[in-house]
Amino acid sequence: MLNRDDDILKAAEDWQKAGHGVALATVVETWGSAPRPAGSSLVINDDGTFLGSVSGGCDVIASGQPKMLEFGVADETAWNVGLSCGGTIRVFVEKVG
Length: 97
What we know:
By secondary structure, the protein is α+β, with helices and mostly antiparallel strands. Helices cover 26% and strands 37% of the residues. It contains 3 helices and 5 strands. The relative contact order is 0.25. The model has no long low-confidence stretch (mean pLDDT 80).
């Protein structure tokens, strides 16, 4: 079962109050086949603990600089590994607090 947005934000708040560096990753755009829709989030703290279903965050915690990350697979590559089509996902990662 995937965590609800309020669970993710509560974890971010709790970790920050406990003195951890925290980053939030949010899917902002997708094309073609994507595992999670736009708006999906993941929160990660500076010891690598995370909650949610997208990845990223450690570099953003250390630098404090937000990043736009893009991951994808071409249709030809997807077909070769048994997927019906490729796709791209774009994720915005920002430090919390």
